[in-house]
Amino acid sequence: MKTNRNNALIYILLVVAQILICNFINLGQYLMLSILPVMVLCLPLTIPAAGLMLISAVCGLAVDWLAEGILGLNMLAIVPVAFIRNMVVNLLFGKDHTERGDGFSIRKNGFVRVSVAILICQAVFLTIYVIADGAGTRPFLFNLIEVGVSLVCGYIISLPIVNMLTSDGK
Questions:
Q1: 57, 52, 159, 37: which is closest to 98 by C-alpha?
Q2: CA-wise closest residue to 76 among 34, 44, 117, 46
Q3: For the chain, what are the domain ranges?
Q4: In this predicted model, what pLDDT tens digit does every residue of 66-120 receive, in sequence order?
């Protein structure tokens, strides 16, 4: 019971951290940092898909409302990540993880598999976010550079988050 409360508190603090990142860390128009995709990836596998999409929509809306200024942009990009999360976990870690509700971690499943899962979730999120943010007004090359740079930086900041949310003891 104590572990569940700690996980919920950590998750709420990470949402606050995402809000602070959006408000105070502006590194230019070619970089969009987000830890929301990895947070959705690391939610317990026992949560059904509808609940997962609801949790991610609320978190995305909170970030939009308190940080970004464009309501619905993070929510639009994070809900598809929640939708594909179980497919990504089944594909990379095996179907037994979702059936048993086992978590995953870098130690149990390997650095490469967890990295691929992070990259898939980040890529889906960033692609939808950048396309919706530009709304057809930016050139394709600009969008491609923004997704690429943001993907690399987002992956780097996501690795400690995965270690924090998916330790073997939890």
A1: 52
A2: 34
A3: 2-165
A4: 887 778 899 999 999 999 998 998 898 888 766 776 777 788 888 899 999 999 9
